[in-house]
Specification:
The complex is a heterodimer of chains A (257) and B (238).
Chain A: H1 2-6, H2 9-24, H3 32-52, H4 62-84, H5 86-89, H6 91-94, H7 103-129, H8 141-165, H9 168-182, H10 195-201, H11 205-219, H12 225-250, H13 253-256
Chain B: E1 5-17, H1 23-35, E2 47-59, E3 63-67, H2 74-81, E4 89-94, E5 98-101, H3 114-124, H4 129-143, H5 158-170, E6 176-180, H6 188-203, E7 207-211, H7 215-221, E8 224-229, E9 232-235
Parallel strand pairs in B: 3-7, 3-8, 5-6, 6-7
Antiparallel strand pairs in B: 1-2, 1-4, 8-9
Helix pairs in contact in B: 3-4, 3-5, 4-5
Classes of the chains: A mainly alpha (257), B alpha/beta (238).
């Protein structure tokens, strides 16, 4: 991918810059939205589970618990949501000018990554504010982020390409994302799930990523290496397959879009 | 000047489908990944040939005019040259960078200002950011829109919009320029300026392909006029 995109790096950069500009054009608080969105979602969950339902998750603040889950989830759902219609809504470019098509969904991943990084700063502020004892294990956060980015990119490519052929994808993906939200430990912890269900849940790479992001930062625990190896292998294989198919069918996009 | 072919079409056929949902094409592509076989070359239901056995050669520095009625395959030829789509049969060789000025302003975004759109559209046409930094003032000057350059283009009139798009397009550094019906843009004064710019580009030995209904325009610039009808070249290279 790097080799293919190198000649078009300026175009990729301009696409990211464009999406970023469009996003906050004619808004008054601009980039603050990047902080506000995950923050308000986290507060909502804190209210529902802490005040209304009184569920007991862990022995640390709800605020941290939910925020740690909301951040990667927002990145994933934001990117894939952007990707689904990204190619089909840019059909006037796709049918007229050649450039590697993955640039369009990739720019969506990139702007969501910017939001994610801003949210991460807020996360660190919260961690310090609640005096969470950090251990060196929190460095695992970065490989986990890399896995999340690769996985999100693969799913984005997949949905974007499929939506070129079938517009059903856009309709289905809204529903699927909702479904996936509950299959990802954003509002619960995998520790509270029975063992026989755990294996099933771990088929979704987001489960491993989100759960461990919380563990390595708030709880200071390490990760289980063999699980990491399996998940990593799965994510890489998935990426290679999807990208290969993407390149192959990309040639036909202009004709079918 | 040595004759150096930059574009070669060799017995090119191009198939299109009239169907709305193209399940078959995705299935075919996927099957061809696994089996390594090429796609079918015959016509299935609802498919038609947009180009039938088209062959021609364009040499460096030539200016070719393509004309013909709607649906005769002019735009398909431009799309094949610019790599947007691929031929069903036959082969195509293109040497050099192509700037497809096929539809002006395809990459423009209404919320962005004129200057932001210059960068957006310029990179889409294959210019690098550095080249654009150097050329930006030239582009603005050529468009004659310097008073409006920091205004979002959604507030432009359609004439202003096309002027900006055309100005970006003609500042491309590509070796091969494709113009599709774009020369009917703007008022007389701007059109004269465009004509002058094209003459300059021809003098720079750029290869140019112009598609137009206006044969007057084509007579003015084109070294050779190619007429197309129903996907077949009738005059020019026939």
């Amino acid at each position: 991918m790097v080799k293919r995109l190198y000649a078009y790096k300026d175009l990729l950069f301009v696409f990211i810059w464009r999406e970023f500009l469009i996003r906050y054009k004619q808004t008054t608080i601009g980039i603050l939205w990047a902080i506000l969105q995950p923050l308000s979602l986290m507060l909502l969950f804190t209210f529902i589970f802490g005040v209304v339902l009184h569920t007991n998750h862990k022995d640390y603040p709800y605020v941290l618990f939910f925020y740690a889950g909301v951040l990667p989830w927002t990145f994933f759902s934001g990117s894939t949501n952007f990707a689904v219609s990204s190619l089909s809504s840019n059909f006037n470019l796709v049918t007229k000018i050649y450039f590697p098509r993955e640039i369009i969904p990739l720019s969506g991943v990139a702007i969501n990554l910017i939001d994610y990084l801003i949210g991460l700063l807020v996360y660190f502020v919260l961690l310090i504010f609640y005096r969470t004892p950090l251990t060196w294990n929190f460095l695992w956060l970065f490989p986990l982020m890399a896995m999340l980015i690769v996985y999100t990119t693969s799913i984005s490519f997949f949905l974007a390409a499929l939506n070129v052929y079938y517009r059903d994808v856009k309709l289905a993906s809204a529903f699927l994302l909702q479904f996936l939200f509950f299959a990802t430990p954003v509002i619960y912890s995998i520790d509270t799930v029975e063992n026989r269900w755990k294996t099933l849940l771990f088929l979704n790479p987001l489960v491993f990523i989100v759960e461990n992001m919380r563990r390595v930062t708030i709880e200071g625990r390490g990760i289980i290496l063999w699980q990491m190896a399996v998940e990593l292998l799965g994510i890489i294989v998935l990426y290679l397959i999807i990208y290969r198919i993407f390149i192959r069918i990309e040639r036909a996009f202009a004709d079918v879009i | 000047m040595s004759s150096e072919p930059v574009i070669e079409f060799n017995n090119v056929w191009k198939k299109y489908s009239k169907q709305q949902v193209l399940n078959n094409s995705l299935r075919e592509e996927l099957v061809s990944i696994i089996t390594g076989k090429k796609c079918r070359e015959d016509l299935a239901d609802g498919e038609f040939w947009a180009l039938k056995n088209v062959s021609f050669v364009v040499e460096r520095g030539e200016c070719i005019g393509l004309c013909g009625p709607n649906g005769s395959g002019k735009s398909t030829i431009l799309k094949l040259i610019s790599n947007v789509t691929f031929s069903t049969k036959g082969f195509i060789k293109v040497h050099g960078r192509v700037a497809p000025l096929i539809e002006l302003g395809a990459g423009m975004h209404p919320d962005l200002t004129g200057i932001e759109n210059i960068y957006m559209n310029g990179t889409i046409l294959g210019l690098s950011i550095r080249e654009l930094k150097n050329k930006c003032s030239d582009i603005v000057e050529f468009s004659g829109l310097s008073d409006f350059i920091n205004v979002p283009v959604k507030k432009y009139s359609s004439g202003m919009y096309l002027r900006l798009a055309f100005s970006i397009a003609v500042h491309s550094t590509a070796d091969i320029l494709l113009f599709d019906e774009v020369l009917t843009v703007g008022d007389q004064e701007f059109r004269d300026r465009c004509a002058q710019k094209i003459a300059e580009l021809i003098a720079l030995e750029k290869t140019i392909i112009i598609v137009s209904h206006e044969t007057k325009m084509l007579d003015l610039f084109a070294d050779k006029i190619v007429k197309l009808e129903h996907g077949i070249i009738t005059t020019g290279y026939a």
